[in-house]
Every structure is written in structure tokens, then in C-alpha cells.
Amino acid sequence: VIALNVAEQLVNKGLFEDAIIVYDIAGNLEKVLELFCVLLAQVVSSGGALRERLRSLSEHVSRRLRSEELPSPHLVDAYNKLCKLMTFFDQFHAENYEGALETIRACELVPLSSDEVSARVAGARNARGELLRALPAVLRALCHILLAMRQKLRTAQPTLSTHTANKQLEWLREQAEVLNTFAGNIAYRMPGDTYSQLAQMQVLMH
């Protein structure tokens, strides 16, 4: 009880990172996940000391999740997806674009094929706010990845068969269309530059 009171006081002071540790000691995994999601959503796409500390802490939290009775599935899903997004952005910044696409596919947050659009739109409708706040950065990163892949294809085109080049270009165009469709259909209103970047990417695919 004392630990919970201390944790609540820390939350009231905005000291979420310290509160996570105290809630963990008190065995309140649900509060740990809630605060973890709040903090991670703020730094998931960037670097910095807090992000690195959260990464280390996530290993401990994930072990707890495997060994204890789970709190709200909705909350656990948000936590797991934010952890995957941390990996996605690591791969993105390292220019490991193939790996980043595989990670975002496993995350099941945004669609990477037309077959996935409806499910991902529905998922976004029910997603926690922390996940939605990460969406603009995810979509902007995907724009960058797809445009980089388009440029790479343009450079390699003379060495590829027409069939191979057309197939890859068709795939890239589908990705661009799928992401624009997704962004236009989710209820969450993103910053205007995200929509314009998506639209510009689609134009540049042609």
C-alpha cells in the first residue's frame, strides 16, 4: 500500500519513469504498462537517454508479461506494438529498410497490402491513444522508405528485366496507395504535413 501511494504521488508530479519502477515493486503490472506506453509514445521515433532506459526496462517488463497473469489485453497489445515500433525506428534510422518493413508488418498497425486496409482501419479505430500518436511518425518513415526503394529501383532498372522492374514498381505503387487509403479512412486526425507527404509520395511513384 505504501508503495502504491508513493507511485501515485510520483505520477501526480509527472515523474512517470520513477513511478513505473515503484509500481513494478508493488506488483501493479497494469500501471507499469500504462505509464510505459505514455512515455514510449513520446520517444518511440527518436533517440535519447529516456528511450534507451525504456528499452532496457522493456526487457524486464516483457519477462513479467510472460510469467504473470496478464492485465487488459488492449493495454498489452499497445505495449507490444510500441515495443515493435521502437525496433522499426531503429531499423529505419539504420537504413535497414527491408527489416523495418518486416517489423511493421509484424506490428499489424498499418496495412502493407490492400487486403489489410479494412482490418488496420478497424484496429486504428479501437487503438489506444499512445499508439495513434505514434502513427504520423510511422507513416512519414514509411514514405521515406518507399521513396528510397523507388530511387534504388530507378538506379537498378537498366540491369533488371522489364518484367522484374515492372513488378517491383507495381508493388511500390500499391504500398503508396494503401497507405494513403489507410490515412484517409482512420478517424484519428494527423498533422497536415503527414497527409501531404503521403500524397506526394504517391505522385512520385509514377
Automatic annotation (TrEMBL):
It comes from the Eukaryota. GO terms for molecular function: structural constituent of nuclear pore. It holds the Pfam family Nic96. The keyword Protein transport applies. GO terms for cellular component: nuclear pore. InterPro entries: Nucleoporin_int_Nup93/Nic96 (IPR007231). The keyword Amino-acid biosynthesis does not apply. Keywords: Membrane, mRNA transport, Nuclear pore complex, Nucleus, Protein transport, Translocation, Transport. GO terms for biological process: poly(A)+ mRNA export from nucleus; protein import into nucleus. It is found in: Nucleus, Nuclear pore complex. Belongs to the nucleoporin interacting component (NIC) family. This is Nuclear pore protein. The lineage of its organism: Eukaryota, Metazoa, Ecdysozoa, Arthropoda, Hexapoda.
